[in-house]
Amino acid sequence: MYYFLNNRLDSNSSGIEHAEVKRLKLFKQKGVKAKLAMRDYNRFAHRNLPLYGLNDDDYVNMYDFFAGTVNYPQQKMTIDELPIPESDQIKKVDNGYEVYDGNRKTMLITLFSDNNLDTITYFNADDHKTKMDFYDTRGFKSFTQIFNTSNDNLIYESFYRPDNTVYYEVSYEQKPKWLAATNIQLTDKKGVQYSLMNIGQAFTIMLDELNEQDGGQSTFISDRSNITNLPMINMKTPARKIEHFHSIHYGDYRDPNSFLSYGSIANTEQLSKTDLIITPGQRQADDMKKRLRTQVPIVAIPVGIVSNEQLAKPHIPMSQRIPGKIVILARLFVEKRIGDSINAFAQVYQKNKNLTLDIYGYPDGSDNCKEEKKLKKLVKDLGLENCIHFMGYANQVDDIYDHAQLMLLSSLYEGASLVTMEAQSHGVPVISYDINYGPSDLINNNVSGVLVPNGNVDVFADEIAKYFSDSNLRERMSEAAYENAKRFSGDEVWKYWKKYVIDTDKA
């Protein structure tokens, strides 16, 4: 069995998760058993699987694994199942109910759209939150949080199996600047009890038990180096361990010789426990070989895959697309440098009012969406709110590409650029900064798109203007983009997996 390791699968996922899903489908198509293996608790995951064309058999989550709910049928769990005293009053509120004992509010109940229980918040006599119960979308209580009523700090979490037994507990302690998980108690599927210091140790236990469950010698591919690689290499059972990079491997995006970003390659002992390293492109593989000087093989395998269905679709001429429609598909994060694309667009728009720019992507919630706010302010300050639109996250992108005439990419760095590959497969040329590494591996410069000197907004704008001034150029580049995408068909990408992973695994 092949396991692709990551932390979570959300409804709005990044390129890494989309790449994993495409790879999983390719493996299934070729008759090779594989699954996504996720670390983080996610009570919405099984509701999200159909968004990616997946089912329960394609996915294992650490909490599901220890709870025995990897394959758990949908149940009905409504407010009627709760043991609320008959004397209490139940009041309907937005998205749920409030429960009162006389004048005192004791509970706040929220519901999913199917009326299944979502959360229950409990209150003491002083209206302080004492605990919260969280329900899995499939209809069972999955975990509880307990709070310090004097300051609302989280102090304890317990995770439940459907029979209400606890298998995972976390104790918290408030430090001067953060809330620290000070101890984890895990009872695994065999009934063995562990006292752990971090979630990574629990993930390692799951990986070992998965490996034993499959008879040993499974292959684990870590797709989130900073999250899943150390738990993978700390496994005690014999298995094949592969680290798959999706981004650059060094700290200063301008200098491949700057400090190494990940302990899995900076630490010689950790690196020696890895059987193979995969990069998205050959240039990065070559740079890594020079830098690491290791005996661990380093190979390049394209990250994205263009489906046969997409390659077989009729080509859409530029004349049938929305005139002047430019798109950006990227997370609204600082490293995507979307402000440069906006400024370049603004220069061109002054002379070509037929252009519009749609930006698709979700913001960085970890810093209160600071970059999204900055970008929207930039658009407002430029007076371009009528032609630059923030469209939010899009899970289905085919229609977006099929109507677009151009895509922009102005990232600081890209190990791989799945959106560039996707755009080209829909005949959409890409104008991108020439950065390490993705765009130059994917774009045939001045043929299927254009590579612009990194950080040069004026040249970026000049290339956009040039592209829209010549209808023949647009048609030529569109056809070249369609052609270039053939390099990333399932059959072509599978040749790499067979050569470097599948066939060597059998040796």
Distance between the termini: 16 Å
Instruction: Say how many strands there are.
Output: 23
**Can you identify the CATH class of the largest domain?**
Alpha Beta
The number of helical runs is 17
In total, how many domains does the architecture comprise? Answer: 3
- Looking at the structure, the CATH topology of the largest domain is Rossmann fold
Rg of Cα set = 25 Å
Biggest β-sheet description: 10 strands, antiparallel
Tell me the CATH superfamily of the largest domain.
Glycogen Phosphorylase B
Stretches where pLDDT falls below 50 for ≥5 residues? none
Spatial order of strands in the largest sheet = 4-5-6-7-8-9-10-11-12-13
Given the C-alpha coordinates, what overall shape results? globular
Taken as a percent bin, the fraction of beta residues is 25-35%
Mean pLDDT: 94
Short description:
The model has no long low-confidence stretch (mean pLDDT 94). 32% of the residues lie in helices and 25% in strands. The protein has 507 residues and is of the alpha/beta class.
Write the layout of secondary structure elements.
Elements: E1 2-6, H1 15-29, E2 34-38, H2 45-48, E3 59-61, H3 62-67, E4 89-93, E5 96-101, E6 104-111, E7 117-123, E8 129-136, E9 140-147, E10 154-160, E11 166-174, E12 179-187, E13 193-196, H4 199-213, E14 219-222, H5 225-233, E15 240-244, H6 263-266, H7 268-272, E16 276-279, H8 282-292, E17 298-300, H9 308-312, E18 325-329, H10 338-349, E19 356-360, H11 370-381, E20 388-392, H12 398-403, E21 406-409, H13 418-425, E22 430-433, H14 438-442, E23 449-452, H15 457-468, H16 471-485, H17 490-506
Parallel strand pairs: 1-2, 1-14, 2-3, 14-15, 15-16, 16-17, 18-19, 18-21, 19-20, 21-22, 22-23
Antiparallel strand pairs: 4-5, 5-6, 6-7, 7-8, 8-9, 9-10, 10-11, 11-12, 12-13
Helix pairs in contact: 4-5, 10-15, 13-16
